[in-house]
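User
Take a look at the entry that follows and flag anything odd:
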Amino acid sequence: MTGTVAGVDAAPTTSLRPSLTAPAVIIVAALVVDQLSKWWALDELEDGSVIEVLPTLEFDLHYNTGFSFGTGTGMGRWIAILVVVLCLVLVHQIRISETALRANLAAVVLGGALGNLVDRLFRAEDGPLSGAVIDFIDVTWYAVFNVADILVVCGCIAFGVHELVMARRLDAALKAADLGADEEPEEEPAT
């Protein structure tokens, strides 16, 4: 955008914040991939079929009304309300992010959270937000989860690592600036 200030053309102004296009694409892609995988699981596994992928990995349909890994069974409505709040926080985080990477990592987590929230909204049989989340990736020695769960967990880990790296860089820069301010300038020899 250009403007005129006191009759002089001003330079175009640009925002220092990253574009919201990439985070929007990430959120939509995450939601689509998650929901398509769940539709596939319902279509292929609803009859009780189990597809063995590896010796300790199989596709096996489960309905989760609780938290991750089967905890909090029956607390779906409360979990959904928490997820709505989390989604609002993530949207805000994306909007205020100072780097594209930070915004994109928050978008990965938001896409996953929305994937499971869609299940709770549109698979509800006992009122709003009471639906069960479709889980089908069964690591037989650990847990059953879905694509949305993978996105949330991996996105949170990557976001946390990014924040730690950025904090260390900021700390190092502040220490370097402190050291530079403490040094006295060398006097030039008299001529």
In short: Confidence is low (pLDDT under 50) at residues 1-5. DSSP finds four helices and six strands in the chain. Helices lie at 21-45, 76-96, 100-122, 147-182.
